[in-house]
Write a structure and sequence with these properties.
By secondary structure, the chain is mostly helical. It has a domain of 41 residues. Helix content is 62%, strand content 0%. The protein has 3 helices and no strands. α2 crosses α3. The longest helix has 39 residues.
Length: 124
Amino acid sequence: MTSIPSQPTGMPYPGPATPVAQTPGTLLPRVPQAFRELSESVDAPSTGDPLKEAFQDFVGQTLFGSMLQQMRKTTGKPAYMHGGQAEEIFQKQMDQHIIEDLSDASAASISDPMFELFNMQRRQ
């Protein structure tokens, strides 16, 4: 009677799986911090004026939000590949991310002249 090897010949036994971190929780807190530092370095430099930043956020999100909402109204639902209510829910969430990204990228060019007029009016 021949014995069947438990491991194919020529392939070394890998041994037990080694854990990613030796102690629990040592690797995980560093990962979010790294992402936070990366996102802070990638984001547009802040002007330091919280009023101006709030003004830019409001103008950008209002403008781009209404533009994207009107754009979505012009397109119909596809005949066969529509995801139903779940697609509509996630579409709104995706639209919110798109609006935030557009606002961060180009709201300053639109809102800076408006902010200057707002400041001149406020100083009088």
